[in-house]
Specification:
heterodimer; A: mainly beta; seven-stranded mixed sheet; four-stranded antiparallel sheet; B: mainly beta; five-stranded antiparallel sheet; 0% helix
C-alpha cells in the first residue's frame, strides 16, 4: 500500500527555471494539499484541492500553480523558480466525510534553487 | 501573531523522562486538535487526535486540551530514544477543510 508518493525526492534548480512536482495517492481521497516546510516555520499551506478539477489558495500561494486533473494526482508547478522557494515540499491527502480524518503525508521533495 | 504558537525547541531530555510539549492558539473556533510526529527526512504522521476539551491517552502518550486557556499539551511518559522526532500540533474548526500547524518542536531523547 503506497499511500502518498511524491516525485522527485530531490531536485536542484537554477533561478528562473521551471519544474513540476507530482503527488499521487492511492487511497481514493477527495482532499489533497501542498505544503512547504522551512526551519522554524512549521508547515505552511500553499494550495489545496477538495476534489478533481478544483483548487484553492492556501497561506503562501504566490509563485506556485497547481492542477488536479485526476482525483489521484495533484501537481505543484513553479513557473520561474526563485531562491526563496528553496524548501522541503510535502503533499498530503485526506478523506472528506469525517472531521477527525487525518492527513496522510508523503515523504517530501527537497528542492534547492541556486 | 500566528494563529498557533509552538516552541520550536530544540528539547533534549534523558531516556525515561516525562516530556511535555505545548501549543497555544488564538482562534476560539478550533475544535479538532491533533499531534503529528515527524521523523527525520520523513513526512508527518498522526500521533494523537482530540475533539474539544479533555484528555486522551494512548499508551505512553497523553493529549490534553484546555479550550478555556486556548492551550494544548502532549505528554510522553517513559520517553525512549525512538521518540526522538519533531512534534507538530495542528488544529481546525468545525467544517474547515484546512489544518493550521504549529512550528513544530524538535525533541531528542538521550540514551
Amino acid at each position: 500500500n503506497a499511500g502518498v508518493t511524491q516525485t522527485p525526492k530531490f531536485r536542484v534548480l537554477k533561478t528562473g527555471q521551471s519544474m513540476t512536482l507530482l503527488c499521487a495517492q492511492d487511497m481514493n481521497h477527495e482532499y489533497m494539499y501542498w505544503y512547504r516546510q522551512d526551519p522554524g516555520m512549521g508547515l505552511r499551506l500553499i494550495h489545496y484541492s477538495v476534489g478533481e478539477g478544483t483548487t484553492a489558495k492556501g497561506e503562501v500561494p504566490d509563485g506556485y500553480n497547481v492542477s488536479r486533473l485526476k482525483k489521484q494526482n495533484f501537481l505543484l508547478g513553479l513557473e520561474s523558480a526563485a531562491p526563496s522557494q528553496t524548501s522541503v515540499y510535502f503533499c498530503a491527502s485526506s478523506r472528506w466525510d469525517r472531521e477527525d480524518q487525518p492527513q496522510h503525508f508523503g515523504d517530501g521533495t527537497r528542492l534547492s534553487i541556486l | 501573531q500566528k494563529e498557533v504558537e509552538q516552541d520550536p525547541g530544540p528539547l533534549s531530555v534523558p531516556e525515561g523522562a516525562i516530556v511535555s510539549l505545548n501549543c497555544t492558539y488564538s482562534n476560539s473556533a478550533f475544535q479538532y486538535f491533533m499531534w503529528y510526529r515527524q521523523y527525520s527526512r520523513k513526512g508527518p504522521e498522526l500521533l494523537m487526535y482530540t475533539y474539544s476539551s479533555g484528555n486522551k491517552e494512548d499508551g505512553r502518550f497523553t493529549a490534553q486540551v484546555d479550550k478555556s486557556s486556548k492551550y494544548i499539551s502532549l505528554f510522553i511518559r517513559d520517553s525512549q530514544p525512538s521518540d526522538s522526532a519533531t512534534y507538530l500540533c495542528a488544529m481546525k474548526g468545525q467544517g474547515a477543510q484546512k489544518l493550521v500547524f504549529g512550528q513544530g518542536t524538535r525533541l531528542t531523547i538521550n540514551p
